[in-house]
Amino acid sequence: MQLLKVHRTFPKLKQLITRRYAQALQREQDEYTDQPIYPPILDMTSKGKKKRERERTRENIKNINTVEEKQIALNMPRYYGWECVMLTEDSVPYNAMPMVQHYTRTHFKPVDSLPDVYQDSSSMADTVVQEIKSAIEDCIVIENEGIQRKITTVLNKNAEAQRENAQARNIVKQINRIITNNLSDKVSHILSSQVDYDPRHEAFWFVGGVDIPPKVFFGRRKKGWPKEAALEPVNRPVQYLGIPLLTLRNHLPLKPVIPYSECENPEFKVAQFSTLPKSVGYSADFRHGTNIPGFWPGDFDEFGLISYHGRGHMLARPESFGTEDNLEALHCQAMKTSFGWLLAQANYQGFTTYNDLTYPLVTQTVITNGNLISFYVYQLNTISMHNDDLDNPKHNICMGTKPMNLYDTIENGKVKGLNDDVLKMLVQFYLNAPEEREHDMKPYLGKEEQFVADIEDDNKRSWLESTYKHLMSNRPKHKLLPETYLWERIYKIEHNTRFFEAKRRPFELGTNPFIRRLDDHLPPYIPKALRPYPRCRKKFETTYYPKV
Amino acid sequence: MSTRWYPIYQKGNPQLRVFLPNFWMKLVRPYEKQQPNIVHFHCSMEMTKYDIKNYLEKIYNVPVVDVRTKIALGKFKKEIVKGYITKDEDVKVAYVTLPKTHKFEFPNIFEEKKSSEDDAKALEETKKTFKKFLEKNKDRTDVPSWFSI
């Protein structure tokens, strides 16, 4: 090393010197064992190699220390983002249940009352309901008749739906205020919980066991893959987007509704839905996968208790869908929102779509328009549903009620027929206390470094922080996206009429610009004036992309 | 009523009397695997979603839940002799969703292929002829096959 510092040619010189006094290494005595030991036999077919490669990637992501780096690692293979199937909270096509169930691996159980774990809080809820009843009636009357709010609507969504959601948002805010005020001195977890208004809920995962898009199939055939290989399944990236009206979260997770071992029950198995999502009315979009449960990593209150969602989109559904499908649409909305929120929370605990949960997470979802209320309890048991994990026995469970009326009518400034049972159920959701778990909550995160903020190195920390936030923002690229123009498709790709021209475009060079890796770019240039003195040869800034 | 341009009335027979409607729908086989309650159609470019729904409901009594449409780009083809590029007409494609209790399977319009028994028989026949040919030319290996009476 000393010589190296003197001049950089020394290591090369060292190679030229012959090693005259060197001799063969002496054999170790215990080289032989009683039983012959062989290295493991590996599948050396291309399929086997690819499978090992995927396993290595998953293992690498698992070994990353911080939450943010894991999220960047999920997005590493695509510079322009994944072509995600977009699942939004407020658009449910006809007969959506089979697809939503397969994509979230959820067994749905219709119930009339809350599950057994809520029995303990029953008597307390009764007293609370009697205390808050008049306040709730007042707030419903005032929000419906006493106040005229100016609601601004956007043009790209149904105006009526937006108005109903805005109305529901106001009522939910009031109801939440009344219940939390009443409960804050009765139960300890309410005071320590945080309330979010219109938070940003996003979740990203991969779904296996689905047909490959024709684009992929024909692309592979064009490259000369045999037909069977071209039909090899691919994971479909899925992105959920939703904005609840209001959420409550705490630093402790809720108790599981059913025991964790129960989730492997074959009764909960959901039917496979392999048809292309496009064929039933879902769209796909290029974007970086984001997992955001309404707060940034490192927040203290990282487990959800309750989320309220609007049901305005039901007004935008055509009449021909029928009431039965409308009910299913509500269930679908509940499954999507609950799964999406819990998945994002699980990601902040260090699990990803590649590294499955080791314990269950629970959330409570309320879908309401200010009068009609439906309650859902969702237990997340598994988040791994990619192609290599298709025989995963675990399933998620969602229990939900039908929509019920909170009150009958409002007459002469009075609420008629306030439904105590419905209000009681809502109070019971608030009374369901989160609990400290005995197991390790973050097994896949580092001991010292769990978030980027814990990293000591200033450069690395700030670089990772800004890269993470930039990816999660999904801001459009500064430069135009690569595009094959129609004239090129006609005169260059489909019909080779311009064979004499120089081949410079990606399709002529046989590359696909959309399969570019995230780190496949030149890092920012350091101008000479800014380089550390004296004579630094480093021209480009360091990047800290996770190695996966 | 039709907006087609028909030839101007001329005296004499035969006369063009059939007035064809603007609206037509053609059932097509889906390219990819579909849900059993989704049916694909090609239809005339002027038809809207509502027209498609009414067409199926009023004329054929088919219950329609939802209609999605798109306009598919026509294929580009090369003119064989002159070599310039031509384009086929665009088509409007309608994806019609039936109630989930309904199932539709695209019918097999063309008759089935000949049975494998016939194929085997034909193959056997060919083999026999070829063997006969070999037998005939056994003694004249250097002579081309066309050189015979």
UniProtKB/TrEMBL annotation, chain A:
Q: What is its main location?
A: mitochondrion
- Report the domain of life of the source organism: Eukaryota
Coiled-coil annotation reads 144-178
List GO molecular-function terms, semicolon-separated: structural constituent of ribosome
Is Glycosyltransferase one of the keywords UniProt gives this record?
Answer: no
Where it sits in the cell: the answer is: Mitochondrion
Q: What is this protein called?
A: (African queen) hypothetical protein
Origin organism of this chain?
Danaus chrysippus
From TrEMBL, chain B:
Signal peptide annotation:
none
Keyword entries, A-Z: Mitochondrion, Ribonucleoprotein, Ribosomal protein
Q: Which domain of life is it from?
A: Eukaryota
Where is this chain's protein located in or outside the cell? Mitochondrion
Q: Which InterPro entries match?
A: Nucleotide-bd_a/b_plait_sf, Ribosomal_uL23-like, Ribosomal_uL23/eL15/eS24_sf
Report a single Gene Ontology molecular function: structural constituent of ribosome
Which SUPFAM superfamilies has this protein been placed in? Ribosomal proteins S24e, L23 and L15e
GO BP of this protein: mitochondrial translation
For this record, the Gene Ontology CC terms, alphabetical, are:
mitochondrial large ribosomal subunit
Q: Which Pfam families match?
A: Ribosomal_L23 (PF00276)
Q: How would you summarize the oligomeric state and partners of this protein?
A: Component of the mitochondrial ribosome large subunit (39S) which comprises a 16S rRNA and about 50 distinct proteins.
Q: Which family does it belong to?
A: Belongs to the universal ribosomal protein uL23 family.
Which named protein is this? Large ribosomal subunit protein uL23m
